[in-house]
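Q: Could you fold this chain for me?
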Amino acid sequence: MKKRKIAEAAIPTSSMADIAFLLLLFFLVATVIDVDTGIGLVLPEYVENQENVEVPKDRMAAVLINANDDVLIDGKVVTLFQIKDNIEPRLISKIDLPTNKKLIVSVKTDRQTRYNAYIQALDQIKQAYNEVWDQYSNQNFGRPFKKLTEEQQGIVKEKIPYIISIAEPESVKK
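A: Sure. Below is the predicted structure, expressed as structure tokens.
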């Protein structure tokens, strides 16, 4: 009499590859990939035969950022987070003036300025505009800027236009 071999228990693996590929496909399709969209800046249209116009210094807020990320506003050294506090009162002081007398914020950087410092400076300037828009909206319409109708927002933006000039980077000394 021969001894019978006992059959070993085995898990069938023939369809394992199919299941792995289906899971892989599911996760590829279901995963959302975060894409950086960059900075939302609207560039002006190209104009031929452009004439240079001298702008009075009282209309300009010159924001300079050097290679050490030091910020100068009209020659006065400030930190990145003081930009908003320096720009905001100047915006408020120009509210009742005609459009051609409004404040122009000029941002200029050094070629070695860190990109992060540049973005933070632009964010501070945008915050200054947003806070002035909110103050004006609350005073004149009783609501914050974001809760106004499009027509009312247009009125606010006409009174306080968003004018930022971004200049070519160059060597800026401390």
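A (continued): The helical segments are 16-30, 83-93, 115-141, 150-159.
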